[in-house]
Amino acid sequence: MDYVRIGDKVISISKINSTIDEILELRCKGYSQQEVAKILNIDRTFISRLESIGEVRKGGKIAVVGFPVANKEELERELKKTGVDFIFLLTEEERQRFVKDQSGLELVNGLFDIISKVRKYQHCIILASNARSKLLSALLDCHVYTIDIGKSPLKEDVYVDVNRVLKIVESIKE
């Protein structure tokens, strides 16, 4: 049933749903609430209330960086379920390819790009060797949580305890 009657009004459910979809799409693209309200000719307060209804987590955004991770797909899947905002995980093969497939300048620029992205988050969980964890912690100006997955230098993928990482995510959210 696409239409409902409320008193003297006939309401289109699909119009409501498409408008909500459009609001969320514009907000995800970076438009402010005020800009979206102007574009769609609706009240900004409606957008704010709509976001409050659907809000799953308030507070700092979370990034997770890890390498070399054997169970990368499993960990990514579980982190996405919890709403982690930025995930950068590599297997050893991906890490080696990242280093070898770029010139020195491209590599440095790529690393700085990743670091600048992660620095935008209030919390970062680092899954790396003991030496890499310390280095990354020093480069970030957020709350850093480290899980040392081995002694440097790591040369093969390491299985990461997904539940251990998820417990840290949950403690951050609380």
Describe, in plain words, how this protein is organized in 3D.
- Strand 3, helix 4 and strand 4 form a beta-alpha-beta unit.
- This protein has a four-stranded parallel beta sheet with strand order 4-3-5-6, with helices on both faces. Strands 1-2 form a two-stranded antiparallel sheet.
- It contains eight helices and six strands, in the order ββαααβαβααβαβα.
- Helix 1 crosses helix 2, helix 2 packs across helix 3 and helix 4 packs parallel to helix 8.
- The mean pLDDT is 91.
- It is elongated, with a radius of gyration of 21 Å.
- The chain is α/β, with parallel strands linked by helices and 174 residues long.
- It starts with a strand and ends with a helix.
Helix-strand layout with pairing:
Blueprint: E1 3-6, E2 9-12, H1 13-28, H2 33-40, H3 44-54, E3 62-66, H4 72-82, E4 86-89, H5 92-100, H6 104-118, E5 123-128, H7 130-139, E6 143-148, H8 162-173
Parallel strand pairs: 3-4, 3-5, 5-6
Antiparallel strand pairs: 1-2
Helix pairs in contact: 1-2, 2-3, 4-8
What percentage of the residues does DSSP assign to strands (E)?
Answer: 15-25%
Largest β sheet strand count, sense and barrel closure = 4 strands, parallel
The proportion of residues forming helix, as a percent range, comes to 40-55%
Globally, the shape reads elongated
End-to-end Cα distance? 40 Å
- The neighbouring-strand order within the major sheet is 4-3-5-6
Number of strands: 6
Concise description?
The protein is an alpha/beta fold and 174 residues long. Helix content is 53%, strand content 17%.
